[in-house]
Structure formats: C-alpha cells, structure tokens
Amino acid sequence: MTWNVEEIRRDFPVLHREVNGKPLVYLDNGASSQVPQLVIDRTSKYLAEEHSNIHRGVHYLSQNATTAYEAAREKVKRFINAPDVNCCIFVRGTTEGINLVAHSYSKAFINEGDEIIVSQMEHHSNIIPWQVAAEERGAKLVVIPMNDRGELIIDEYENLLNERTRIVAVSHVSNSLGTVNPIKEMIATAHKFGVPVCVDAAQSVPHFAVDVQDLDADFFVFSGHKMFGPTGSGVMYGKREWLDKMPPYQTGGSQIRTVSFEKTTYAPLPAKFEAGTPAIASGIGLGAAIDYINSIDFVAAAAHEHDLLEYATQRLSDIPEVKIIGTAAEKASVISFTIEGIHPHDIGTILDQQGIAIRAGHHCAQPVMDFFEVPATARASFAFYNTREDVDKLVDSIQKVIEVFA
After folding, report:
1. What structural domains does the chain harbor?
2. Which positions are catalytic?
3. pLDDT per residue as tens digits for the range 157-206
4. Which pLDDT tens digit goes with each residue over 226-271?
5. pTM above the 0.90 mark?
6. How many Cα atoms within 13 Å fall on the side-chain side of residue 173?
7. Which region, left, alpha or beta, applies to residue 47 given φ > 0 means left and ψ of -120 to 50 means alpha?
C-alpha cells in the first residue's frame, strides 16, 4: 500500500508557506486540520455565485443554494452510513452538537436521581454540558476511570451501568491522549441496560472510516474543521427514536410548522433542530471536504498516519528528557509530551520560531492533566499530509529547546 504524500500536499495551499522565515510544519491537526483547494474553491463559488438564504426562497439563487446545502447533508449521510438523511442535523461543530443532545435529551429523559456517565478523558465539551444537565435535572455525573496508559478501565465502566443510568457520553478518540476507545463494545454494553450512547467523534472521523449503523451509535457528533472543512460546520447524527421525542434545542425561524400566539408546532426532522439561518457556506464546504476524503485512498491515508505515529513515538522516546503522556495500545495520530523542567508553552513558543505549529496547554481536558499530575502538555497531532521529515524537524527543534533551557 503506497501513499504519495507529496502529491497530497499539493492540494493544501497553506502547507507551502513560510512561518518566521521557515517552511511551515503544521502539527496542530487535533485542533483544526488544513483545508484543500477543492474545499476553498467550492466555498468561494457559493459566496461569489450562489449566495442566498436557503429553504424559503423561490428565486434562482435560493433554489441553487438550497440544493447545494441539502446535497451536503446527503454526502454526510453516506459518509457515516446513517440510515436516514433527516437524522443528520447540521450544527456549528461538536460543541454545539453535544450541547444540543445534552439539553434536549435531558429535558425529555433525565430526572432527579438519574445518572449520566462520562469518562475521565473527555474534552470539556463532553463534560460541561452534561454537568449542567445533571445540575438542572437533579441527576448525578458518574465518571469512567482510566489507567496510567490513558486507557478507560472497561470493567469499571460495566460496573457503573445500572437502572438509574440514562445516557453515556464518551469520546471515540481522546483529543489529549490519542487513545482510541472501544466504542462499539461500549455501546453494546450500554444497550444491554437500554441506555443510549452519545459519541464525541471529533477526533475519529478525520482519521478512519466510521459507520454509525455498525457502531449502533444513538448520537454521533463531529466537526467539519477537524476533517479538512471550514469552521462553523459540523453534524449531530441521532437515531430517530430519540430525536422525535426530544424538544428543540433552539427556536425561531425555519424550524416551525405553525405559529400562533396560543401555540407553536415544530417542523419534522431535520428542521426541528435547525433554527434560524444556518452557516450555509460552511455546510456546503463540509460537503466538499467529504468529496475530497472520498477522492483519496482513506485506508492508505490512515496507514500513513499510523506510520507517522510510530515513527514519532520512537524518535521522541529516544530523548531522555521527553515523557510521552498517553501510551494506550490503540492510538490515533496524537502525541502529547512533557519535557522535564520546561513549560509546554515555552516549548510551543520556541518550536513556532522554527516554523513548527504544535498545541501547548491543557487541551480543554483539565481532568486528564490532573490525572497525570501535569499542568499542561505539548501536543503534536498528525494528518495524512504530514511527513517523516516533519517528525525529524520536530525532534531536532525539541533538542534545541532542551539546549536553550539547559
């Protein structure tokens, strides 16, 4: 299986620029991936030639824009193998999608004394909405623990499920550790108790193929800007059996059937959860990003990323001062690390001077940092357009960081 990374890199204009006088080495894909020319062109075409509000207009531009926007929804359906296009709800990103589920599901199904299960490795966006829901409904937040490698302790998870459990919210891939959780098995276990599962898929969808029907996911949420699309785009997929019973998250234009001063009735899915004018250009751009992913060998891309992960892990492990945080057996292409005596922000600043973009901080995962007893980590996250040369430059620059602080 071959992967022509140089050919792929030509599709991404930003990869050919310089930063601080050095060729850009972009290793912050966990925060936001870069955008191929195909997506830039499609988004620009909408803004230049098709810009209009959608769904309500009878004129030519509105009809064109509506067709393009709904075509993007159909692409999403096929991309995640959803059974029903109308169950693919457009949101601004994973955060909004999880907030939608937490708000609407809790109103319909969570009461005082109930329990909500999250994991110790969650992003803040998959903790706080459930925390708020628990406080508002008088429920309790229960946490799946993890081990020193950054893996969830599945036996403990199974022991937490009981007749009071109303939902499980868990990440497919940890943004701070790269751990790939056994989501399919976790969903099957929850379903034995009749408990639905909300999957934060922000970090999985960009790296390997997903199938919501095979996973049997009840809710599945992801962002466009982490999968080579524009910011302000994302999807919340949910099973119709839940979505039909959940109240709207927001109300206003587009999502109503009838309005009077006495009563309002809501439109069917997906409009019920899509109040107001959406981010039309971003939605169309997300569809274009899916077109791009479908145009490449995604299996070969995943294999290339795995090679980069293994290579980077080996090279960083050879530096005595570097400690890798998160050593799960199953990982996506994320490496978080610390250097003894050097704050991650200083690491990130010096690497930036070398044109290398990484992420430094708690990665919106403070409970993870608390578990590993570190204030923050430096994080390098790879995409299929990165190279072994990028890894070598990262390692050389880390050596310079150590020399500076020595």
Report:
1. 5-31+297-405 (3.90.1150.10), 40-294 (3.40.640.10)
2. 364
3. 999 999 999 999 999 999 999 999 999 999 999 999 999 999 999 999 99
4. 999 999 999 999 999 999 999 999 999 989 999 999 999 999 999 9
5. yes
6. 23
7. alpha
